[in-house]
Amino acid sequence: MSTTKKIAGSALVVALGVSTLAACGGSEPAAPKTITLVSHDSFNVTPAVLKEFEQQSGYTVKVLKSGDAGAALNQEILTKGSPRGDVFFGIDNTLLSRGLDSGIFTPYEAKGLAGVGAPYQLDKEHRVTPVDSGDICVNYDKAYFADKKIAPPQTLDDLIKPEYKNLLVTENAATSSPGLGFLLASVGKYGDDGWKDYWTKLKANGVEVVDSWEAAYNERFSGSAGGKKAKGDRPLVVSYASSPPVEVLYAEPQPAEAPTGVATGTCFRQVEFAGLLKGAKNEAGGKALIDFLVSKKFQEDMPLQMFVNPVVKDAKLPDLFTKHGVVIEKPETVAPDAIAKNREQWVKAWSSLVVK
C-alpha cells in the first residue's frame, strides 16, 4: 500500500470513528434555540414585532410571567445559580441593589447601549440594561369627582385631607414595585424624618393596601375598565402617569378624553432593567434578546404594549400615548445609593405602620 493510500485509509477510519461517535451521541449538543424571559405580569410585545426578532435571530422566545416585580425578583434570588430562564426583565431602580447584591446577573454590555440616555444607565458594570422608564403616580376616576363636585387631589399633601378619606388604594411596598415607588415618593417629599408621620396620617385617612398593581388597578379602582367590572369602589389608585392612554386604547368606542387623570404632584420616577441571569442555559440567546429590548423596533412598540416610556433617545412615542398620557416635569426622586442603604428598613417601618 502506498503512503497516499495509507493516509487515505487512516483518514477514512478517523472519519468513520467521528461518524460513529456522532451517531452514539458523542458530539457536542446543539445550542438551545429557545430563550426564556422571566418577567413580571405586565410584560407585553406586539406578536409581529417579536416574530420578526425570532425570524432574524433563529431563536424562539418563551415568556415566563411571575407576578409583580418584587415577587418575581425574589423567586430568582431563591433559585440563584439555577435560574428559571435566561433573561430577567422588570427589576427597577427601587429594587436594583437587591438584585445586584444577590449576584444573580452576568455582566453584558448590550449592542445599542450607546443610544440609551445616560441618566438611565445606573449600573456601570452592565449587569443590567435599562429598558424603559415611567412615573408612578396616583390616578383618579374623573367621573367620581365630577359627580361628587370635589376637585381631584393633585399632591401628596392633598391625599391626607378629609375630603379624600377612604378613597385611595395602593400596593404593598414589600411586594410591589409601584407600592415601593409610592413609598419612596413620600421619602423624597418629606425626608427620612417626615415620611412616617405622613403615612400615619394617610392610614388614619383610610388608605387601603393590596398586594399587587393588578389587584389595585384592575379590581379596586373604580376608574379602570377592569375595576368597573369588578365593582371597585376606590376612585384613587397608585398606578402610572401613562395609565390614562390604556383606558382610551381598549375602550369601544374610544373616547375623545381619557376617563382617568393623574395627580401630578404625587409621582416617583421608575426605571426598569433587564439582565442576563447567571447560569442561563442559553447565554447567547439571552444576549441577543437584551439587544432586541433596546432596539428601536422594540422601544417604539413598547409604549402602547406596556405603557412606559422608551429609554433610547431617538425612539418616537405614538400619538395616542402623547395625547392622553401626562409628562411629569418634577417627579420625586431618591438617590440609588440611599435606596440601597435604607430600602429594607424603610419597608420594614412602613409595614409596621400601615399593614400590621
Mind explaining what this structure looks like?
The chain is α/β, with parallel strands linked by helices. The protein has helices spanning 3-23, 47-57, 69-78, 96-102, 142-148, 177-204, 213-220, 225-229, 244-249, 283-293, 296-301, 303-306, 319-324, 336-355, and strands at residues 34-39, 60-65, 87-92, 105-106, 129-141, 168-171, 208-210, 236-240, 260-277, 309-310. Strands 1, 2, 3, 4, 5, 6, 7, 8, 9 and 10 form a ten-stranded mixed sheet that branches. It is globular, with a radius of gyration of 25 Å.
Low-confidence stretches: 1-24
Please report which band the strand proportion falls in: under 5%, 5-15%, 15-25%, 25-35%, 35-45% or over 45%. Answer: 15-25%
Describe the main β-sheet briefly.
Answer: 10 strands, mixed
Our measurement of the CA-to-CA distance between the termini, rounded to an integer number of angstroms, reads 91 Å
> Radius of gyration, Cα only, in angstroms?
25 Å
Q: What value does the average pLDDT take?
A: 90
